[in-house]
Amino acid sequence: MCGIWALFGSDECLSVQCTSAMKIAHRGPDAFRFENVNGFTNCCFGFHWLAIVDQLYGMQPLRIKKFPFLWLCYNGEIYNHHTLRKQFEFDHQTNVDGEILLHLYDRFGIQKMASLLDGVFAFVLLDTANRKVFLGRDTYGVRPLFKLLTDDGFLAVCSEAKGLTDITHAMATPANIVPFLPGHFETFDLKQNGKVHSIQMERFHCCTQEPAHAMYDSLERLPTSFDEEAVKSNIRTLFENAVRKRLMAQRRIGCLLSGGLDSSLVAATLVKLAKEEKVAAHIGSEHHVVNFTVEEGIQAVEKVIYQLETYDICNIHASVGMYLVSKYIGQNSDSVVIFSGDGSDELTQGYIYFHKAPTSKAAAEDSVRLLKELYLFDVLRADRTTSAHGLELRVPFLDHRFTAYFLSLPEEMKIPRHGVEKYLLRESFKGLNLIPEEILWRRKEAFSDGMMSMKKSWYTYLQEHLQSMVNDDQMEKAHKTFPHLPPCNKEAYYFRQVFEKSYPGRAEWLSHYWMPRWINATDPSAPVSI
User: Fold this and answer.
1) CB 204 within 8 A of CB 136
2) CB < 8 Å & 24+ apart, contacts of 489-492
3) Tens digit of pLDDT for each residue in 8-60?
4) Predicted local confidence at residue 525, as pLDDT
5) Which of 85, 125, 232, 297: disulfide with 134, CB 3.0–4.6 Å?
6) Alpha-carbon span 385 to 393, nearest angstrom
7) Does the pLDDT at position 447 exceed 60?
8) What is the mean pLDDT of residues 204-210?
9) Four-point Cα dihedral 373, 98, 253, 25, nearest 10
10) Which residues pair with residue 120 across a beta bridge?
11) How does residue 454 score in pLDDT terms, banded at 50, 70 and 90?
12) Which residue from 308, 347, 344, 325 is spatially nearest to 255, judged by alpha carbons?
C-alpha cells in the first residue's frame, strides 16, 4: 500500500502544487519523493512509500537502465511477478514486484500487460519515447485511483480524491474529480507542453471472465464438473491458493478477525499456510481484543468521513469500527500487512436480502452488480480505514481466479439454501476442523451491529446520539439544502453536513447510496437489510 500522485501539463508552480500530495502522506509513512520528468518541466510524480517488497529498490517512480524512457508510479502488489518473469525470461534489475509492468509493457503493450497482472494495483506509466501516459486499475478497484482532467489537457492523478481538491489550473470551468474505473486502462497522448489528450479507454478484465494470467498459474488444472463435491473441492483449492499468494511480504502480517464466517476462514487459512510455508515469523500469532467506547466511536465519525470521502450511510457505519481497530494496530503492533474477509458477501450472496431474491438468476445478477460497485462501497471502506494508519490490506475473497470460478457456477448452486446464506461456501469447509462449526454456520451479522454489545448495537447508539444533532426544520428543508441524494433521516443529514465541511460541492462523488434489493428499505444499514 502506497500513495501515488502525478501531474501532467500543470500551468501553476509545481512546488506549490506538490503540497496537495502531502494530504495522502498516511498511505506511505516510510518515505516520500517528488520527481520532475526530464524534458517536461511541468510534469511531476509524487510518491509516499510503505515498504513491503524490496525495501532497497522499492522507491518510486520506478525506472531501470534497460528502459530509461519509462517512468512507473504504482500502488499495489503483483502476486505473479515471479511466475511471469520466469515464463517470459525477463532480466530484472530489482526484486520489486512492479518491475514486471515495465517488461510486460515493452514486450506486449499496455492491454496485454494489464490483463496478465494477478494482483491489486493502480498505476501511472509514462513512456517519454512514444509520448504516452497510461493509467490503470485492478478488476475490483482494491487499490484506489482518482483523476482530474481539464478541457485543455491538464491531468492530475492521485490515490485519494483529497490529494486533488486543491490542485489549481488555468481553466475558467471547474474540473471534476472522478474515480478511475476498475478493470480499465486509459491511454493519453503527451504533448510537448506536458498536456495530454485521451485516445483510448478500454476494459481489460471483467469479474465474470477467467483472467488471462490463469494460463500461467502454477495451480493444477481443476475439475470442470459441476458435481457438488468437485465444486466444493475447487472452492477450497482456489481459496487456499488466494491466501497463499498474498503471503508475499517482508513485513509482519496480521488479520482482522471479527468472529464471523469470512474473517474466520481467512485467519484460519492464513495460520495454516504460514506454518506450511515456514513464514510463521511474519504472522502475528498473538490475539488482540480491541475495545472502544460509544464515545470513542462517535468522536471518530468526522475523521472517518474525511478519510472515506463519502457520505454513504452504510459505509460510515461499518467504517468506524474498522478505523479504530486499524488505529490500534498501527499504534500497538508492528504488523503492517493486514488480511480481511472483505468481498465475500458480494461474491457468495451473503447479505440477508438475498433470501428475498425472486429467482436464482436475479440473485446472480445482483451479486455481479455488487462486485462491480465494490470500489464505491466496501473496498473503499477497507482501503481508507486501514491506509489512514499506514496499513496494507489484502483481500483473498477478491482473488481473480476464485471470483471468476465462483461466478461461473450454476445460479441455483449459489443461492441461500435451507434458510442459510452463503450455503455453498459453508458446505465447502464443513467437517475440516478449520474453524469451529458454530462459526461456520453462524448467521450473517453486520459488523456495525455486532461490535458493541448484545443489548444494543453501534447502529442504535449512533442513531440515538445523532437525533439531537439535527432538528426537524433542517430535515424539512433537506431536499433544498442537499438536492443531490437528499438525506432521508437525521443520521444521513449529519453525515452529509460533515462531508460538505471537508469536501464542499463534491456531493456527486457518490452516485447512489448502497441499498438492498427486493425489500422496502429506506435505511440501508438496518439489520434486516444486511
Assistant:
1) yes
2) 489/522, 489/523, 490/466, 491/313, 491/462, 491/463, 491/466, 492/311, 492/313
3) 999 988 888 999 999 999 999 888 899 999 888 899 999 998 777 666 677 88
4) 59
5) 125
6) 10
7) no
8) 95
9) -70
10) 77
11) low
12) 325
Chain-centroid distance of CA 65 in Å reads: 32
Catalytic pick among 2, 44, 207, 255: 2
Q: Which residue has the cell 451473503?
A: 350
Whether residue 154 has pLDDT greater than 60:
yes
Q: What are the helix (H) ranges across 437-504?
A: 437-440, 447-450, 458-466, 472-476, 478-481, 490-502
Q: Quickly count: other Cβ atoms within 10 Å of residue 350's Cβ.
A: 22
Residue 398 in contact with residue 140, Cβ under 8 Å? yes
Q: E-assigned strands of 50-99?
A: 62-64, 67-78
Cell numbers that stand for 72 in this block: 512507473
DSSP state of 202: E
Distance of CA 525 to the CA centre of its chain: 21
Residue 101 contacts residue 136 (beta carbons within 8 Å): no
In eight-state DSSP terms, residue 210 is P
**Cell representation of residue 515:** 441499498
Buried b (16+ CB within 10 A) or exposed e, 360-379: eebbbebbbebbbbbbbbbb
Q: How confident is the model at residue 453 (pLDDT cuts 50, 70, 90)?
A: low
Sign (positive/negative) of CA torsion 521, 523, 527, 530? positive
* 192 Cβ contact partners less than 8 Å away, ≥ 6 residues apart: 40
Quick one: residue 226, left, alpha or beta (phi over 0 = left, psi -120 to 50 = alpha)?
alpha
Let me know the angle formed at the C-alpha of 313 by 309 and 317, rounded to the nearest 5 degrees.
Answer: 90
CA distance 94 to 77: 15
Name the residue type at position 48.
H
3-state secondary structure 277-324: CCCHHHECCCCCCCCCCHHHHHHHHHHHHHHHCCCCHHHHHHHHHHHH
Confirm whether 73 is a catalytic residue: no
Q: ∠ CA(447), CA(450), CA(453), 5° rounding?
A: 150
Cα angle 146-150-151, degrees, rounded to a multiple of 5:
140
Bigger pLDDT: 266 vs 522? 266
Q: Tell me the average pLDDT across 102-107.
A: 98
What tens digit of pLDDT does each residue of 303-336 get?
999 999 999 999 999 999 999 999 999 999 888 9
- Longest CA–CA span in the chain (Å) reads 68
- Write out the DSSP string of 331-393: HH--EEEEE--TTHHHHTT-SGGGGG-SSHHHHHHHHHHHHHTGGGTHHHHHHHHHHTTT-EE
pLDDT of residue 285: 56
